[in-house]
């Protein structure tokens, strides 16, 4: 009798977490995190989204899409493909910015293939996604969802920050209604991957990055490019991760199978020269920090600003630990990660389906 009750209670909790039904009284106050993911869904975003989907303490309110690793239509399709693999298609997906605020869109053919997911998936031209995409534009949806859940939403930004910049211009009070903000992007040592000094997400829309770091005065955690590269995992772990007997693992194995960014030949990836060889699931670090803050073992709290000018410095994030800029807001720049805890989280996440 008693065990049956708890089985039903656990089942109910599982369904609530996935948005399949409404929470029981009291459950909403459990340590549940309400999350919005803003993404330019490439391969690392796919893994990051799966980590968030699999987290037992997270409810994803919506996923907003932005150009970046592919054009925004492809990004929407990629997100839906990830949700489908994980059996989570009830989560609403919103289409957002197709380009940066000021400059023209740079070439989208980056290291995750022309479609962002390694150019191996069939049915890319399916019209199904257009029927499933939400009618609301991503920026409007972001503002609405945050206003409906004031003080409770963790916003996770995994792509260029254009949607976030537009949102704060439409609703300047938005940052103070957020619980916190997690960003994968920028740099902390002056090294970049798209230019000598700029990381991809920040470099794709320097103006939006500037706006977000100036105007989102909520608690902010940043996983920079150098941090993620320095926290790389062994390729042996990657093999163990994607060779699990699950649908999600097979999906990750497939989309990484022909992608040169996952090549182990030394010298193909710039990061190998700077940080040594290894598997770097960039966006997943930002999601992991949101899911379980103990994954991040060291951060530096300081003022930051994005350089918008310059032949070499445009898009670079500058750390200002002595606060010569005299900014009132400081962010947490991640420095070290618990590799074992992070690895375990990734491995468990791919057992979602
Ligand atoms: Ca991304």
From TrEMBL:
Specify the superkingdom: Eukaryota
Occurrences of domain Inosine/uridine-preferring nucleoside hydrolase (ranges): 35-342
Q: A Gene Ontology molecular-function term?
A: hydrolase activity, hydrolyzing N-glycosyl compounds
Where do the TM regions start and end?
A: none
Q: Which PANTHER family match?
A: SI:CH211-201H21.5, SI:CH211-201H21.5-RELATED
The text of the family note is: Belongs to the IUNH family.
Tell me the protein's name: Inosine/uridine-preferring nucleoside hydrolase domain-containing protein
Starting at the broadest rank, the lineage of the source organism is: Eukaryota, Metazoa, Chordata, Craniata, Vertebrata
